From TrEMBL:
Alphabetized UniProt keyword annotations: Hydrolase, Metal-binding, Metalloprotease, Protease, Zinc
M23ase beta-sheet core domain span: 78-184
PANTHER family assigned: CELL DIVISION PROTEIN YTFB, PEPTIDASE-RELATED
InterPro entries with a match to the protein in the record: Cell_wall_metabolism_enzyme, Dup_hybrid_motif, M23ase_b-sheet_dom
Molecular function (Gene Ontology), one example: hydrolase activity
Pfam families: Peptidase_M23
Cofactor(s) demanded: Zn(2+)
Keyword Isomerase included in the entry's annotation: no
Protein name: Murein DD-endopeptidase MepM/ murein hydrolase activator NlpD
Domain of life assignment: Bacteria
Length: 192
């Protein structure tokens, strides 16, 4: 067997091992069989309308990155949201009490959920979802911490990097589910 062929096989093998280690580190969580599916107390952040729950189960605030102003669509627009990396199937939780305004499929966001705060002035947007929680429907009232979906990579998300695209919009009660002015969720979730 030629020497260059052996080195190529070794490099491919080393690369595969590195990818497996990275996957295990960032995407696999080993928990005891008797552990609860949802932690009793999840990390919270304060906002002017009360405490926001971390929208992805088990993700600490320290793992967040502020991607709000990053360019998207070849620099044509800003992100206006943050991406929360997590394993596919990880629970997506309602960040606050509210009503499910819209369950929607879009080319960009894939499976999405739009939630409106009880006062009608804040919209929460959850995108790239893998699945909706069983029985979730438009008009349904949800409680802070209630499972509404699971993390995925639907829409224009990279299939190899499942995450929750999470956005917050300030609105008026009559503002449509897709409207409002974007505000950065990062300081509301990353600052204790």
């Amino acid at each position: 067997m030629p020497t260059t062929f052996k080195w190529r096989r070794w490099l491919w093998g080393a690369g595969a091992v590195a990818l497996c280690v990275a996957f295990a580190h960032f995407c696999v969580q080993i928990v005891p069989a008797d552990a609860p599916l949802f932690p009793a107390k999840a990390p919270v952040a304060k906002s002017s309308s009360g405490a926001l729950l971390m929208p992805v189960e088990g993700v600490p605030a320290s793992a967040l990155t502020d991607t709000f102003t990053q360019a998207r669509a070849l620099g044509e627009r800003s992100h206006d949201a943050i991406d929360i990396l997590a394993a596919r199937g990880r629970a997506v939780l309602a960040v606050a009490d509210g009503r499910i305004d819209k369950i929607h499929w879009s080319k960009e966001g894939g499976r999405t959920v739009y939630q409106r705060a009880p006062d009608g002035r804040t919209l929460y947007y959850y995108a790239h979802l893998d699945r909706y929680a069983p029985g979730l429907r438009e008009g349904q009232m949800v409680r802070r911490g209630q499972r509404i979906a699971t993390v995925g990579s639907t829409g224009n998300a990279d299939p190899g990097a499942p995450h929750l695209h999470f956005a917050i919009h300030r609105a008026m009660p009559a503002t449509p589910w897709h409207g409002g002015d974007p505000i950065n969720p990062y300081p509301l979730l990353a600052t204790p």
